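Predicting holo structure, guanine bound.
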Amino acid sequence: MSAKIIDGKAFAATVREKVAKHVAQLKTQHGITPGLAVVLVGEDPASQVYVRNKGKQTAEAGMNSYEHKLDVTTSQEELLALIDKLNNDADVHGILVQLPLPDQIDSDTVINAIDPAKDVDGFHISNVGLLGTGQKSMVPCTPLGCLMMLRDQLGSLSGLDAVVVGRSNIVGKPMAQLLLGDSCTVTIAHSRTKDLPAVVGRADIVVAAVGRPRMVKGDWIKPGATVIDVGINRIDAPERGEGKTRLVGDVDYDSAVEVAGAITPVPGGVGPMTIACLLANTVTACCRANGIAEPEGLTA
Ligand code: GUN
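Done. Tokens:
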């Protein structure tokens, strides 16, 4: 039996539609336009693409997009001064500083300088602590997108065995907290886990976010499990011609699709959900800042 393919592109479009509807309501009923500031330091090509897409989708949802592109030689003090300005700008409801940052800047210092209420990445230590203690917080976008897809597929996640492969602050750890919040029995596995195939094999839900191309094999997966592949790895693809590359996930899709109950493809699975959830977080932050009821279904 071949797995159901989870269409992240279509699902992200429904999230963006919901966001746009709430943005329109905020404008007509409250005279408020949510605003997202994105800060890019340097000219990393992948980061430039992400930032361009974020700006485009923010504007398409009817929100204000403020882009701050700084030179690669920008000092930490200069960046902190900009963040202070954005923290105090009432038109800015969300702030995202694109990572990675150049070596002269300490990422933790910068992230923790963002007003936690505007931290639409959910990386500020206050938001990490709030999420870990089950309190209302800003939730990191990629894990939030994964959670939305899992709820959409499975309904209640209560009591399910979930394995998160990967322990990053951006995906693995917050993903585990969100699954715990939905009453899953959660295991965080990683590249050093002993007998990873056996650990993965117990799971009803597998979230792969380890950054290793095609690491999770189909014969590790419990038949019928739901598999969410967060990996985006560019590999050589000589079969497509000399010098060609292609994107693959952290899951060996061709073998996993034969065993799983449902699976996200790469590309077109988790990827599109990340920016959709960034827009959702911006609307949530805007509502909270103005004491307006938050839209349902756009937060954890
Ligand atoms: N770089 C890669 N992914 C992300 C993300 O989710 N947020 C930020 N700020 N930078 C990133």
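The chain is about 40% helix and 15% strand.
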